[in-house]
Amino acid sequence: MTTLLIPVDGSDYSLKAVDYAAYRARESKTSIEVHLLNVQIALTSVNVKLFVSAQSLESYYRDEGHRALETPLSRAKSAGLQVTSHIGVGDPAKIIIDYATDNKADEIVMGSHGRGALAGAFLGSVAQKVVHLSSVPVVLVR
Questions:
Q1: Which of 26, 84, 92, 121 is disulfide-compatible with 39, CB 3.0–4.6 A?
Q2: How confident is the model at residue 115 (pLDDT cuts 50, 70, 90)?
Q3: Class of the 2-141 domain?
Q4: How distant, in Å, are the alpha carbons of 46, 90, 94, 101 from that of 76?
Q5: The sheet that has 138-141: what strands, in order across it?
Q6: pLDDT digits (tens, 9 = 90+) for 21-38
Q7: Where are the domains of the chain?
């Protein structure tokens, strides 16, 4: 069995990564297991914690995560993929790498926004960080 981790952010690029996984599953001689992961960036400002309860923050992360996962999860199931979904909170690249390690992902498949090298150099990119930090292959889909 091959385990693919697909980080999703609610964008069309994430859906292209799901489509790629469906293609891989159709073409593969082994079964494919897909893990969809949405990472919510932690709202850690001191001001936020003064006015918003921990329970409200958890509810916010869960609701936003489910919203981002809804369409990719539906598309994966429609494609007949064996799929599970997860929500993480924190630094996206770190959460993705930790999840891949903890769940023994064979490959990370990510949609890339394709903003180019110059924008990536100034803005940073979750995909760039994941490629740099990952010990498993990373496939970028555009």
A1: 92
A2: low
A3: alpha beta
A4: 38, 25, 24, 22
A5: 82-89, 32-40, 2-7, 107-111, 138-141
A6: 999 999 988 899 999 999
A7: 2-141
pTM of the model: 0.89
Least Cα distance to 70 among 126, 3, 14, 142 occurs for 14
Phi, psi of 44 (to 5 degrees): -105, 5
CB 82 within 8 A of CB 32: yes
What is the mean predicted confidence (pLDDT) over 62-67? 96
The token duo for 116 is 């180019």
- Where are the alpha helices (H) located in the chain, listed in sequence order? 12-27, 46-51, 54-78, 92-102, 117-123, 126-133
Q: Under a CB-based contact definition with an 8 Å cutoff, are residues 134 and 29 in contact?
A: no
